[in-house]
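Proteins fold reproducibly. Next comes an illustrative record:
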Amino acid sequence: MKSLIELTQNLFHYNASLLAQVEYSHSSQGEPPSPVSMILGLLFALLIIVAMWKVFTKAGQPGWASIIPIYNLYIWCKIVGRP
């Protein structure tokens, strides 16, 4: 029984010494986005803006209202007839 206790103590001590050797010196900052992903993101945003502008003008509302953050929700509610 004593050898079993010594064995488990040695195993715990060995594992603890391995955990103490872990280095946490890496940076949490990632790499900046690539130019291709930035261009694709901007093109996607431009597509959304153009589409919303078109919907607003077809509904008889000013197109510029589609790019104003809170005001466009108010106009959307007016377009669909909800309060």
Q: What stands out?
A: The longest helix spans residues 35-58.
